[in-house]
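It is worth pausing here to work through a concrete case rather than discussing structure prediction in the abstract. The textbook approach is simple: state the sequence, then state the predicted structure, then interpret. We follow exactly that order.
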Amino acid sequence: MPQPLHRRQPTPSNPRVQRTRNRVLTVARELLPQVGPTGLTYALLAERADVTRQTLYRHWPNRAALLFDLILEGPDLGNYPEPGSDVRAVATDWLKSLRAGISEPAIRTAVLAVTAQADHDPDSAQALARIGQDRRAALNKLLEPSGVQLDDAEYTLLYGPVLARLFLDRSHVTDEFIDVVVAQWLTTLEAGERLDTRRAPGAGAHYRNAES
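Step two, the predicted structure:
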């Protein structure tokens, strides 16, 4: 079994270490869209962030680990959804948050780089798998009040059309497109008896776990 991709966790009790991490990631986000993944060398990053290469390797022993943190520790765009019992609303807000994150040039470049390298680089393959696991766990956390928890396939059916629209079609993801994706996804869950549709008088559809 492959060893988990090393990722040094921030040390809340050590402000200096946290400041160093934040500074390096900020500089990396600025450089990545300019120089591309192959141009983001540790020599260049160390020079621009005013740290040593040894410091970089202590935090991120390989490029995949650095890109992993760039993706998962992206800037706070202020639109991440709150947990809720309305599956439609949570899924819609989550996809809009995903769209906003991917619109950031550094995150977009990092996602494409990790995906492209996954076939021939074990570290990138592990990073890609862990990104998916982390994001699914985060979405399931938001869905906890609804009683719905998504498996891997159900999660892929939700985000897949949005990434395909962005990366393969090279097109815009509108709010209307997200609404269609969520509606079709909910229909799939309902067909699999994962959700019940209940209507309260004067209210919209409310989705919840069929077992509740």
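Step three, interpretation. The mean pLDDT is 86. Residues 32 and 38 are 9 Å apart (CA to CA).
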